[in-house]
Amino acid sequence: MERIGLIGAGRAGTALGAAMAAAGHRLVGVTARSDASRERAARLLPAVPVLTPDEVTRSADVVLVAVPDDLIRDVAQTLPLTSAQYVVHLSGAHGLAPLAGLAATPVALHPSMTFPGGPVQLDGVMFTATAPDAARSLVERLVKALGAQVQWVADEQRARYHAGLVHGANHLTTLVTQAVAVLREAGVSDPAATLRPLLVATLDNTLRSGHHALTGPIARGDADTVAAHLEALRGSTGSSTQRRIASTYAELARATAELAAADGRLDAETVRRLTEVLDGHQADPTGEAPR
Q1: Confidence (pLDDT) at 30
Q2: Are 5 and 56 in contact (CB under 8 A)?
């Protein structure tokens, strides 16, 4: 197994390092500058020595640069890498550009997983890789040792790939947070318990069936219900938060109507009525109900 050197002791790097160590890889060292990083390294990588970046790099076959995206290039450029090594970053948005010009073989390797600060289970997690052909066997070996899966994305598609993840995951958090706020304003005492079974079933059905899992008033063409929702969401005070939630609802409703129309579930007249309701909301951003 390859000797792994870890540059950075953030949440993703230490969790991945711990998983690699558990899979049998030898971690030769980790860098940790802040108190929080040293505490995290001691907790997740207790048998791994804390070394300088140069010491870590010189001892490793694979140098894992686990630092914030904006620092990858600057940090990697300072390392004493050789042509016999691989240098790997964990950014989803970046491809090989931050590692350009280095002596080591470059790899962009991103796990589709959140890292809360402790150990993580990587069984079945999809890693998305971008690398030259010379690194493919190494990447597949590293990922499969973790019990995970690997897929390959072209360098020029990394930003598009990451946008898809962010739109699906980060914006889901925004959407659910808004929904919880609306339910709480409606007097629901436990919004999370109310939403959980519906969200879990919807997510599972959508991942399995795509837009065919769509249900609700737009899929039924119920323009009056959508209009009532928008009026309720704008609220009596028309606060900025209420306007933002109403705008989010309207924009997602428009995209949902397009999906339902493309699927043949809505006829042209129903789409016209829904669009009229949504246009009325957009034309009156003050929060007053359209006349």
Answers
A1: 98
A2: yes
In whole angstroms, give the CA distance from residue 15 to residue 68. Answer: 15
Q: Is the pLDDT of residue 40 over 60?
A: yes
pTM over cut 0.70:
yes
* Residue 130 amino acid letter: T
Per-residue DSSP letters for the chain?
--EEEEE--SHHHHHHHHHHHHTT-EEEEE---SHHHHHHHHHH-TTSPB--HHHHHHH-SEEEE-S-GGGHHHHHHTS---TTSEEEE--SS--SGGGTT-SSEEEEEEESS---SS----TTPEEEEE--GGGHHHHHHHHHHTT-EEEE--GGGHHHHHHHHHHHHHHHHHHHHHHHHHHHHTT-S-HHHHHHHHHHHHHHHHHHHGGGG--SHHHHT-HHHHHHHHHHHHTTT--HHHHHHHHHHHHHHHHHHHHHHHTTSS-HHHHHHHHHHHHHHHT-TTSPPP-
Instruction: Tell me the pLDDT band of 291, cut-offs 50, 70 and 90.
Output: very low
Whether the per-residue pLDDT at 289 is higher than 80: the answer is no
Rounded alpha-carbon distances, angstroms, from residue 172 to 120, 150, 163, 169, 217: 21, 24, 13, 5, 20
* Domain range list for the chain: 3-153, 160-282
The third-level CATH classification (topology) of the domain covering 3-153 is Rossmann fold (3.40.50)
What is the DSSP track for 48-106?
SPB--HHHHHHH-SEEEE-S-GGGHHHHHHTS---TTSEEEE--SS--SGGGTT-SSEE
The type of residue at 142 is L
